[in-house]
Amino acid sequence: MAKQQLVREERSSYKVLLFRKSKRMRLFESLIFLLGLGAVWLSCPPRSSGFIMGLVADILITLFLPPAIYLFLFRPHYLLFPDRLEICWGKRKKVLPLRDLEQEFGLPYVYLFGSRKIAILVSDAFLGALNGQLEVVKRGLL
User: Which of 101, 77, 79, 74 is nearest to 88 (CA)?
Assistant: First the structure.
């Protein structure tokens, strides 16, 4: 593959990961919540103040901890080129040709690659640049 001009580069931020989640992140959050709920259920009687405080703490941990863990472990990094999107998670790298990528209706950060849904966890500015490049590729202007 010839060296091409980089259109845009971005590392996922904590704020973006708070609001935009992949299926794997949602599953991880659900597991954390269920483990916390089980711990609170076993340690406090239901409808007690300790149970309610434990449940609120579990909800807050479930909301704020998984994005930080995901960011620390995987360090998601996205590179947009005129003809492809490169997604790096830790030591893994996935190259998606833009001709095979199309936006899925419903969530602005979910795209279809073949029949697979892929969550692109980046800012709105990056998504705008990606959609612009998808239009360029779709119209054959590249």
Answer: 77
